[in-house]
What does this fold into?
Amino acid sequence: MRYPDELIDEIRQRNDIVDVVGSFVSLKRQGSNYTGLCPFHSEKTPSFAVSPTKQMCHCFGCGAGGNVITFIMKYQNATFPEALKYLADRAGIELPEPEYSEEEKQRRSVRDELLNINLKAAGFFCYRLKDREGEVGLKYLKGRGLSDETIKQFGLGFAPLSRDNLFNYLKKQGFSTEAIRESGLVTFDEAKGFTDKFWNRVMFPIADERNRVIAFGGRVMSDAKPKYLNSPETAVFDKSRTIYGLNIARSTRRDFFILCEGYMDVISQHQAGFNNAIASLGTAFTSGHASIIKRFKKPVYLAYDSDGAGVNAALRAIKILRESDVVCRVINLRPYKDPDEFIKNEGAEAYEQRIKEAENGFLFEVRILYESKNMSDPDEKTAFIKGVCELLASMPDEVERESYMSAFTERYGIAAETVKRTVASIAAKNGGEYRPVDRPKPAPSRPKDPDESIKRIQRTLLTWMCEDTGIYRAVKDYISPSDFTDRIYFAVATRMFSDIEAGNLNPAALVNMFEEEADQAVVAEIFNTEMEPVESKQDKEKALGDMVYAIKRNSLDTLDKAEGGSVEDMMRSIEEHKKLEKLRSVKFTLK
It folds into this structure.
């Protein structure tokens, strides 16, 4: 649904960017702005600036920036409607309901009721953890080293021994028997009737990316089986597309995810400072999980159990991640079984070091295959080489394949030509085609943008006009939006000139003219240009004249290159250059 621009403006204006960013980032006043460590990349020196006057933010390190809406979109990895909803709720603004068909209304009604049931159930479990029956659950969580803050953050609770407490509670809350049954929180038996699915278990609420409770997991407090029990799939819970902890990890400043197996692995890592830990609700990692992770454009570090089952699960996950084009590495947890055990024994610093030493996913696969073979046996050595070649042949990207092939042959001392021929043979048998490619030479250093000098001048002028609209009054007869030759600069100047004339300039509103995140960052950069200090009014007037002249000259040079060679074009160019020379003698006066 597309919301009216007036409503979007109201939501943006009712959410001061300093307050919003300050709730996620520690900010300090510095002159007219606020600064802090950028939430979008790791840094030790603050380079993230927030302007209360422009209602914009910009990182001078990584270039991220925008207004309050785009900040929430990037920080929470949210869509525009999701970010708008978050800010509307924060400001107490009710968004209009979109129009739905009767079928869609019914479906949404069912989903809303299930979500409400889950929310009430989560509160019930949290409450029972604190009463006498919940002591066994609380003792277990404390024994696992969890603090009160962590228990509260993850909404952990307890399902008591009685097998109908939750059912009766939900009935008293006004929910129908059918709705409670649809939630998966109760089971029905002809002899016993309705009974709670979870009892005598520590409860782990499972939330979606919007922090809505959609299901539960429970760890039994006895020797009963299964040890861990999850909610069945419902209209709001799809196990193959739900990632535990992602509702928190999506906002992490770390540039990768740590994928592990269970609830406690996620929770213990978050408590130790690794708030990028997530889990796939067991070892059943699916392509659906991979597609969700891919949206975040971050690599995955696997922290599965170090036993045989964990290794096999890691091998399956690596294959799925590779097919989804997600970079993968594997953390070595040995001699410990899982991240929770490792951190308890070695601490967070040692775990951080293991992360730095994480093994490339492909090389992990090769090593595991190597360790399973007796390399002194010719048949097993052949099987090892063929197994690796099958992995290489399955890689669709030729450059990637060549890189891994080189790493494999160098590490294990296998003849490169033998591997190339074997890979080509396997690819041919599988109906594919393999053509060895020349190893690309290291890319030369990225050349500087030849237009950067004039772009900086244009950015500076736009920034000056934003901070003092009197500057626009002084130059508007000599310069127009068309003189800003970059497409984004042109669009910004066009809207900005119009807004100043109308007396309603709002730099933050200009960000939402663009849908692409990269374009929004450019707009933020335009209005956060670091300028050389100007000592006097006369110096600023001279600098203004130099900027206008440089921008006009660049505009005419661009026009000359674009125009044809007709007599009319030549005469027009001569006249325009005469005007340019006259501009050189114009003295700009500022009030």
